[in-house]
């Protein structure tokens, strides 16, 4: 294959069509046998190839000498191809501009391993543009603190409930140590949650041996449930602080629903 036939193929010619047209450029008029011999095209393929070239408008058959073919002059053929390509490109450009974007896809990724949790949580923190809502144990807050500080410096609102004394002194950090005691009693694990921009969440459990299982997801319903879980802990902490422990206990005891929920949690 030479450079000319290769470029013809790039313009939409088949291999045999490119060879046949180039053969006719080299010798015309010519019959099928001569074209096939010059272009090294199998005799079984030459006439169907010539027919396709006639249909394409690349060659013409002699009107006076049957079986003899002439090539359409290269400048005429290439101008026609250029016009066709220009029209096609303009239509494609218009169609692409009108293409509707695919809606955001919800993604779920289950993972194992403490390092995987830290890497995924750090990525969510680094990608956050407006807000971070977190529920962390002191161990995990310590390891994620540098990323959280960087997010705060770039203007991301960081709200964190920490099941112990927070490292940061910011007003948006809440000490949920009392909630952590009951949470650990229920799960016997450290449950950590990191939500970025209300769009994605990392949830993980760490047991006493350091075994870690978790999920990262953009599924809206799971993000919402995670947000409500953190808000529940913060509101509950604020409510107990306002009412006092004994009055809160009495409130729960006086309500069958609250009593059931507290005792079953």
Automatic annotation (TrEMBL):
It comes from the Bacteria. Coiled coil: none annotated. Pfam families: TrmB. Transmembrane segments: none annotated. This is Sugar-specific transcriptional regulator TrmB. InterPro entries: TrmB-like, Tscrpt_reg_TrmB_N, WH-like_DNA-bd_sf. Residues 8-75 form the Transcription regulator TrmB N-terminal domain. PANTHER family: HTH-TYPE TRANSCRIPTIONAL REGULATOR TRMBL2 (PTHR34293:SF1).
């Amino acid at each position: 294959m030479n450079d000319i036939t290769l470029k013809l193929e790039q313009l939409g010619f088949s291999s045999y069509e490119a060879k046949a047209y180039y053969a006719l450029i080299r010798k015309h008029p010519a019959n099928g046998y001569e074209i096939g011999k010059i272009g090294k095209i199998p005799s079984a393929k030459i006439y169907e190839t010539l027919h396709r070239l006639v249909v394409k408008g690349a060659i013409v058959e002699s009107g006076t000498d049957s079986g003899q073919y002439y090539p359409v002059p290269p400048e005429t053929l290439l101008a026609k191809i250029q016009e066709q390509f220009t029209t096609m490109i303009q239509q494609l450009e218009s169609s692409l501009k009108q293409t509707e974007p695919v809606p955001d896809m919800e993604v779920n990724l289950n993972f194992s391993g403490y390092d995987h949790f830290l890497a995924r949580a750090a990525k969510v923190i680094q990608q956050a543009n407006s807000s971070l809502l977190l529920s962390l144990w002191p161990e995990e807050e310590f390891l994620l603190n540098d990323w959280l500080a960087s997010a705060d410096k770039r203007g991301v609102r960081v709200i964190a409930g920490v099941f112990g004394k927070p490292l940061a002194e910011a007003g948006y950090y809440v000490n949920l140590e009392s909630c952590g005691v009951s949470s650990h009693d229920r799960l016997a694990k450290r449950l950590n949650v990191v939500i970025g921009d209300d769009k994605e969440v990392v949830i993980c459990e760490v047991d006493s041996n350091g075994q870690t299982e978790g999920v990262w997801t953009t599924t809206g319903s799971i993000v919402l449930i995670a947000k409500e879980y953190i808000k529940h802990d913060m509101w509950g902490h604020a409510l107990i602080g306002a009412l006092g422990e004994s009055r809160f206990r009495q409130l729960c005891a006086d309500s069958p629903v609250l009593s059931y929920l507290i005792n079953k949690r």
